[in-house]
């Protein structure tokens, strides 16, 4: 029963993330919403809601983490070097490309983690890591070129922001590990989002708001509540009932959801070769989680 609950949390959370990417693509392409404005609003509102949630559930001050001097610098680092760039790069990759490719390129995060750990530990990568890197390189090549050596299927900006999303996703994963071991996850992520939103306050104040039609308001509401706050909550709850490796594999529902929705509702063009490339990149998650123990 608990395993089914964990699988449900992981799948629902991944689907929410995938849906939010497609909805963001809709806002950027048809409603002319600024990615900077949306990222700032998303982080600020979702961060405040998570902090309030943590305070209510834990029955303690949300400022307790700041009373621990050893936690202050890591929390600021996580906010500005992990949370902020991961959200910004992902939305900018959608802006200049599309939701499916941006979501798949995010899956390059584990490859950057492998590179970091290889350098940090001064050791050669394992066979599993080498296979993962090869799969990621082939998949990325197919995704961005459609198999043609002399042309790009994505703009340089979309490719750069997509790779940046993968790199910042690695930072997002590595930076808060010690904090999450000591503090409530809602508290850490809530402060990460709130602090990460601060550089966008000028944009939120100065940039004109988009026309608040019902589709726009509903889309923004979904991105903040379901695609950010609840998606993180579902993910964090899933690892209570199933292994992190299982959660990692089930996260493949995110690019699957983004691809199906974008192609179906937004008519986003994706070739067969690009789909194969995306599957190669996603396969790195399965290789890492299934064979890493060897």
TrEMBL record:
Species per Swiss-Prot/TrEMBL record: Nicoliella lavandulae
InterPro entries noted in UniProt: EamA_dom (IPR000620), EmrE-like (IPR037185)
Claim: Phosphoprotein is one of the keywords in the record: no
UniProt KW keywords: Membrane, Transmembrane, Transmembrane helix
Compartments reported by the entry: Endomembrane system
Transmembrane regions listed in the UniProt entry: 7-29, 35-53, 73-93, 99-119, 128-145, 151-175, 187-206, 212-235, 272-291
Topology term for the membrane: Multi-pass membrane protein
Principal subcellular localization: membrane
One Pfam entry name: EamA
Lineage: Bacteria, Bacillati, Bacillota, Bacilli, Lactobacillales
Domain EamA: residue ranges: 5-144, 158-287
Family from the record: Belongs to the EamA transporter family.
The keyword Phosphoprotein appears for this protein: no
UniProt protein name: EamA family transporter
